[in-house]
UniProtKB/TrEMBL annotation:
Main subcellular localisation: membrane
InterPro entries: MFS_dom, MFS_sugar_transport-like, MFS_Sugar_Transporters, MFS_trans_sf
MF terms (GO), sorted A to Z: carbohydrate:proton symporter activity
Cross-referenced PROSITE patterns: MFS
GO cellular component: membrane
Protein name per its UniProtKB record: Maltose permease
Native source organism of the sequence: Penicillium hetheringtonii
Transmembrane segments annotated in the record for this chain: 116-134, 146-167, 179-200, 212-237, 249-267
The keyword Hydrolase is assigned to this record: no
Family under the similarity heading: Belongs to the major facilitator superfamily. Sugar transporter (TC 2.A.1.1) family.
Pfam families given in the database record: Sugar_tr
Entries under PANTHER family matching the protein: MAJOR FACILITATOR SUPERFAMILY (MFS) PROFILE DOMAIN-CONTAINING PROTEIN, PLASTIDIC GLUCOSE TRANSPORTER 4
Membrane topology designation: Multi-pass membrane protein
Keyword entries, A-Z: Membrane, Transmembrane, Transmembrane helix
């Protein structure tokens, strides 16, 4: 983090033009694109300031465009809880015999395969490797929709297979090995495909003028879902309660399927897009499937579109007001 420059957008917002140019050159080695992007960012900042006057938390839901962006941001962040990760890799919050360890340690103890703590450490290390691999490919491949949907499917089927194996062959050595192996697959998929891209998508999709409100709401709902899953999991898996154990995966398999379907059909692909381009595509009300191939026209054209939309709205309101007035006068004449 010490070597990463400050955001060019933030620097421009604080009148540090030269620092912003240097930061953008560090991020975009192609000199030809730097000045054009600087101009686009400056135009976008100006437009944001014009639109941001009097913004409140309710503006996230005030119009269909911002409402759509809010829902998508919340949904993207919430995929972490929907994947079942809080039960597979997080710490429990009840009086389990192994409450100081993560749930995976608890399952490995149930599986009776090797040292449960060592297996847990191996799985965690593999998760770290997955994150490191993701760091190297996110800017090259980095398709948000593809990785999120695929990760959710892998996590869902991993939990389903664990649940089925545990149900059919309870207490056998092969069951224990299956739990360990599938937990490794789950952890790799979650850390490499879901946890990273969920936050990226949740931060990219909100409107710039409402970003703090929208992303704050997304994070709050995401953490609420995580808390709910973590709080209820012990009651499902604890032998003194429902005693489901790994069969808890029967619940999370459909959860992963629903989340994957939502991501696939409704989450737009914004890889390689600037925030200005994302704004433009949402303002054009494109369906999610067209985001990837859409040719953006730039902030200036977008501003003209927004002004045209505002003008049309004013004309519509004036026409509606005149119509209501005429109707009222006709009613009075008849009476």
């Amino acid at each position: 983090m010490l070597f990463i420059p400050e955001s060019p957008r933030w620097l421009l917002q604080h009148k540090k033009t030269e620092d912003a140019r240097k930061a953008l050159r560090w991020l975009r080695p192609d000199e030809e694109t730097v000045e054009k992007e600087m101009e686009d960012i400056e135009n976008a900042i100006k437009l944001e300031r014009d639109l941001a006057s009097g913004v409140s938390v309710w503006d996230m839901f005030a119009n269909p465009i911002d409402r759509r962006r809010t829902i998508l941001s919340v949904a993207a962040v919430s995929t972490q809880a929907a994947s079942g990760s809080m039960y597979m890799i997080e710490k429990p919050s009840s009086n389990l015999d192994y409450s100081w360890e993560a749930y995976k340690t608890y399952f490995f103890e149930m599986a009776n395969v090797g040292n449960a703590f060592e297996n847990s450490c191996i799985v965690t290390a593999i998760g770290v490797v997955a994150i490191m691999i993701n760091m190297s490919i996110i800017t090259r491949i980095g398709k948000r929709k593809l990785f999120l949907a695929a990760g959710l499917l892998v996590c869902g089927f991993s939990q389903l297979i664990i649940a089925v194996v545990y149900t059919v062959h309870l207490g056998t050595s092969s069951t224990g090995k299956s739990i360990v192996g599938l937990s490794i697959i789950f952890n790799f998929a979650y850390n490499g495909m879901i946890s990273t891209y969920a936050w990226v998508s949740g931060g990219e999709l909100p409107s710039q003028r409402l970003r703090s409100y929208t992303f704050g709401l997304a994070a709050a709902i995401g953490f609420l879902g995580a808390w709910l899953c973590t709080f209820t999991a012990p009651y499902f898996i604890n032998p003194d309660s429902l005693n489901w154990g790994p069969r808890y995966g029967y619940i999370w398999f459909p959860s992963c399927l629903v989340a994957a379907a939502f991501i696939y059909f409704f989450l737009p692909e914004v890889k390689g897009r600037t925030l200005e381009e994302i704004d433009e595509m949402f303002e054009q009300r494109l369906p999610a499937r067209k985001f990837e191939t859409y040719k953006c026209v730039g902030p200036a054209a977008l501003e003209a579109t927004l002004k045209k939309g505002k003008l049309e709205e004013k004309v519509y309101r004036r026409h509606s007001s005149d119509s209501q007035k005429a109707t009222s006068e006709n009613v009075e004449e008849k009476s």
